[in-house]
Design goal:
The structure holds 2 protein chains of 2 kinds. By secondary structure, chain A is an all-alpha fold. Chain A has 5 helices and no strands. In chain A, helix 2 (24-53) crosses helix 4 (71-99) and helix 4 runs antiparallel to helix 5 (103-130). Chain B has one domain: 3 helical TM bundles of succinate and fumarate reductases (Up-down Bundle). Chain B is 77% helix and 0% strand. Chain B has helices spanning 12-43, 45-53, 58-86, 94-121. The longest helix of chain B is centred in the N-terminal third of the chain and has 32 residues, at 12-43. Chain B is elongated. The chains are: A mainly alpha, B mainly alpha.
């Protein structure tokens, strides 16, 4: 063993073979990457359809009705709604943890965020189902 | 130790991070608004059309160009993050990837923005 190798404290060296502990934060980290990759396609295609391929003024109630006649578009829109909301929710949770330091304020801001997201998720789902 | 030495002065990676947060934040709040405006269709289709027409005015068209820019940046930089995470060797090209992300964001937003603003440029969209 050379001198330089000996100087490296082995305890501080990352063990690359070790698997991460699958706790909630690990799952949320994977969720962000997987939902993000799916959203790249879903969100950009949705925006292109409603702003580039069709002009925004063309996407009136009739346009929505003709699109939602096809259940596949309803599923598409619902997946976009669900992944978009929860990807955004988790991102904001990380932002709050970084910038809202006082425990009371942090709990309050999170409670407001979670409530708004839950209500709008239910409301958006209802809109798609009951149309 | 001078006070300045405690301030983190990052390079491209830090700007990529800051922009990712800001654009994500903006897109999320637009999504909240968007859930509400679409839901009007179940209350009254005429009301939906009236509110929806607002998206065709110039102010909101500019807002939509901004939304496109935020969306494209967040999507492309997200892919950059995933690449760095899952292909550790790509961290060496982190700066080049940020340059590509920035370039594509500007080009795609400019092209899409031109199409969005076209009705205004042709004089068929109202000011308000």
């Amino acid at each position: 063993m050379t001198a330089t190798q000996k100087q490296l404290p082995s305890a501080n060296r990352p063990k690359l073979e070790r698997r991460p502990r699958m706790n909630f934060e690990t799952w949320s980290w994977y969720f962000m990457r997987i939902s993000g990759l799916i959203l790249v396609f879903l969100a950009l295609l949705h925006f292109s359809l409603t702003h580039i391929i069709y002009d925004v003024v063309e996407t009136d109630a009739e346009f929505v009705a003709s699109r939602w006649e096809n259940p596949l578009w309803r599923i598409y829109d619902w997946v976009l709604l669900a992944l978009g909301l929860f990807h955004g929710l988790n991102g904001l949770r990380w932002i709050i943890d970084d910038y809202v330091r006082r425990p009371g304020a942090r709990a309050t801001v999170k409670a407001v965020l979670y409530s708004i997201t839950a209500v709008l998720f239910a409301y958006g789902t209802l809109t798609i189902i009951t149309f | 130790m001078s006070p300045e030495s405690t301030v983190y002065r990052g390079k491209s990676g830090q700007w990529a991070f800051v922009l990712h947060r800001i654009t994500g934040f903006l897109v999320f709040f637009f999504l909240l608004l968007h859930v509400v405006d679409v839901s009007l269709i179940n209350i009254d289709a005429e009301l939906y059309n009236e509110v929806h027409e607002l998206y065709g005015n110039v102010m909101l068209r500019l807002f939509e160009v901004g939304l496109l820019g935020a969306l494209v940046y967040h999507a492309l930089n997200g892919v950059r993050i995933v690449m760095i995470d899952f292909f550790p060797g790509s961290i060496r090209n982190e700066k080049a990837m940020f340059t590509v992300v920035s370039f594509l964001t500007i080009v795609l937003t400019a092209v899409g923005g031109f199409i969005i603003m076209k009705p205004f440029l042709e004089g068929t969209a109202g000011i308000l």
